[in-house]
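Reader question, answered in our methods column.
A reader sent in the components of a multi-part assembly and asked whether the whole thing could be modeled at once rather than chain by chain. We filled in our standard form and ran it. Here is what they sent:
COMPLEX SIZE: two components
ENTRIES:
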Amino acid sequence: MEITKKDVELAAKLAKMRVSEEEVSIYQEQLEALFKWVAELAAVNTDAVKLTNVNHCAHMRPDVASSNLAQAAELRGAFDEEQDQCAKVKKVL
Amino acid sequence: MMTALEIAKAVTSGAKTAEQITRESLDIIAQKNPAVNAFVEVFEKDALARAKEVDAKRTRGEKLGALAGVPVAIKDNILYKGHKATCCSKMLENYVASYTSTVVERLLAQDAIIIGRTNMDEFAMGSTNQTSVYGAVKNPVNLECVPGGSSGGSAAAVAAGMVPVALGTDTGGSVRQPAGFCGIVGIKPGYGRISRYGVISFSSSADQVGILASTVADAAEVLEVISGKDVHDSTSLEAPVPAYNAQFTDGLKGMRVGLPKGFLDGLGRDIKDKITQAAERLKELGAELVEVELPLAKYAAPCYYIITSAEASSNLGRYDGIRYGYADNSAKDLNGYYEGSRAPFGLEVKKRLIIGTYALTSERYEECFLKAMKVRELIREDFKKAFEQVDVLLTPTSPTTAFKLGQHDEDPLALYLADLYTCQGNIGGLAGISVPFGNDEKGLPVGIQFYGPILEEEKILNAAYNLEKGL
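And here is the structure of the entire assembly that came back:
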């Protein structure tokens, strides 16, 4: 499986990450080696395989309302500035 | 340092106080951590206050928990309310947990003392503990060597005698491989045995909390405490938790131990010899050795790197400067804001996010991600069939013993192969344990791994317990 520098740049863009030219070169080489390995999976016949979840169990909990995290505690983890239970965020655009 | 079981017994009987034990642990950390770099933060004040509470509880005549006064270290991706949890990344350098993970809640409920947070590979991506923003961890057995990863700090803390037990997380071997490299016990139970609530996600279908301990009995005790259904984690399993330490037998009569065909091909003589010796020892203990076929297990590693990276690319999408993490407030537009805010990710994390994102692109989805998911199903079937013939499987923990810091920096594929035997457990959702079994010619510890089916951790614990006893 050939991986080009353009592939790396596209994936980085989709992942919303800036990568330098040097990083692109390093990643391209490393991804090429990794995906060559991944290409070996093609040898396995998976035509009849159906996907299930990892521990083969359905997990549903009863639909009962329960207490949630305290608002202040949540905001403390998310923002630097708090004011009257609101968080002042910086203008992005 | 005493074992966790010895400490709990001493504190419960009054032979020692929790405060004495905590101070002892803090002293050893102060003495050894500068060289090993296992802890990134020690909760000294908190731990001592907590120890005094446990002692006061005893003075009042109240019943103490199963881990009374036991100092426990937690990996830096496990939440403990009011304490930092940074995943050893600049991205989360100021993140303070707003709630406590279920595993820590359960430890506290049994009167354990949370002593600090341990170093790890950034976002648990790595097998050397060299990608941490806090610097590399050194292997206490040989300070020139890596301790393994990603729970390298937790393993080194136990191996250096700073704490008797520590929690880690294991997505591809991150508890068992460092346990093997540092000469201690590391268990990752089957997927769903332990709640992941409050554990920072890397790959949701592979992540599991695991335990690093100096003895199998300590690992069993902590496993019993933290296992079981949790309403906050829908993937945790509803099943009774056995008293694991009560399940140990004297010898292994009647146990069928599977030796996967071809698993030792290409291994160095040291590891091969140790596996052969371990198999002989198990036979002496009464176990029956059975050769089993696992033809697709060799594909576990490429499946692992595709699936976990794809899941990581989704899970780590939340670090965008808006929802979580570092924010680049110098950006001029939205894309610039996102890209600038995600700049603190280290090289390995960025690489995995690129791998995962690429595997999920419409051009590669079927060929890479879907294919890996389907092969994963077949690998799980392989293991299921093997466990119809045997109780546990015996494998090496890693293809090599601990290597020098920086040795494989230029060859990441060689590093990825370090997870060869352990990532099968995460792909299969299996229970796995690494137990030390002597040293190689260089004096470095060799880990032996047992696999068992989900919810049958008592079998691998018993096999490991018997093997450990004979050493």
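What stands out: The radius of gyration of chain B is 21 Å. The CA atoms of residues 307 and 369 of chain B lie 6 Å apart.
Send us your own complexes using the same form.
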